[in-house]
Design a protein that fits this description.
Helix content is 41%, strand content 23%. It has 292 residues and is an alpha/beta fold. It folds into two domains: 150 residues, Rossmann fold, CATH 3.40.50; 129 residues, Hypothetical Protein Tm841, Chain: A,domain 3 (2-Layer Sandwich). Helix 10 links the parallel strand 11 and strand 12.
Length: 292
């Protein structure tokens, strides 16, 4: 008889809280501090309030999950007799995966069965990978089958992003100060993609917001390739610009005929680095990066 197992993750996947609850997915929380106040699993702030504070000039800082925190979260599941498969936030953007991997190694030495996967994804890219993994599990796939699918497909989760406020990208070291100043003056919107190392890389630019949205749709068409028919759902996240997210969803539907989609906020931890009005699109593709 196959042993029961649980899929875990962290809050960097940016799926709605209702999804985690409905599918009984335990979540670890990275925290952030803004204006002297720390927000975490037990003390939360609404997305709307978070972005309002950012628009007013607040500069939040973020913290990763520690090995001890990861260990305690894992033990809650392992002590119930279940194996654990954890899908972690990209190691290219945070030390959280390394913390989880260290905790898992210690627990394996104690006789538990646990594996941690570096998703090399972020936000709803990580969310889409988790969504597909949970779907497989609920269809009857065992631990090894889900793990293997995730490992084989994590680099096929495409992330295409248009940023609005270049200051936050500059603060995070993504672009230079001079680029930020000139770009803001010319209304240049950087286009960003996730590379195979799980890092967000500026790969192009658009002149104006509308052209930025069109660029995301075009990149999706370039990257889907042979995986196009597998895209029964696409996902969009936004940094407090829901109207643009809905417009982007309509554009994708009209271009590619994919009916199902999910829209949600970019959570505060990632939003601390992207700033307000960032918009991102996620789907399955043959390749992650386009030359745009």
């Amino acid at each position: 008889m196959k042993k029961d197992y649980v899929i875990m993750s962290d809050n960097m996947g940016d799926l709605p809280q209702s999804y985690y609850e409905e599918h009984q997915i335990p979540i670890m929380y990275l925290s952030y501090t803004m204006e002297g106040e720390t927000f975490d699993e037990t003390h939360r702030q609404s997305n709307e309030a978070f972005y309002r504070c950012m628009r007013e000039g607040a500069l939040p800082t973020t913290s990763q999950i520690t090995p001890n925190e990861a260990r305690e979260h894992f033990l809650k599941q392992l002590r119930s007799g279940k194996d654990v498969l954890c899908l972690s936030f990209s190691s290219g953007l945070s030390g959280t995966y390394n913390s989880c991997a260290l905790a898992a190694q210690q627990l394996r030495e104690e006789g538990y069965h646990i594996e941690v996967i570096d998703t090399l994804c972020a936000s709803l890219g990580q969310g889409l990978l988790l969504y597909k993994a949970v779907e497989l599990k609920e269809k009857g796939a065992d631990f090894d089958e889900v793990r293997d699918w995730v490992l084989q497909n994590r680099l096929n989760i495409c992330h295409v992003v248009v940023a609005d406020d270049l200051y936050h990208l500059m603060r995070g070291g993504r672009i230079s100060r001079s680029t930020a100043v000139v770009g803001s003056m010319l209304s240049i919107k950087p286009l960003i993609q996730m590379n195979d190392e799980g890092k967000l890389i500026p790969t192009g630019k658009s002149h104006g917001r509308k052209k930025g949205l069109r660029a995301l749709v075009n990149m999706m068409g370039e990257q889907m390739g042979s995986r196009r028919d597998e895209n029964d759902i696409f996902m969009i996240c936004h940094a407090d610009c829901e109207a643009d997210a809905k417009q982007l969803a309509q554009m994708v539907q009209e271009a590619y005929g994919i009916e199902n989609y999910l829209i949600n906020y970019i959570g505060p931890v990632i939003g601390s680095h992207t700033g307000p009005d960032t918009l991102a699109l996620f789907y399955l593709g043959d390749q992650r990066m386009s030359s745009r």
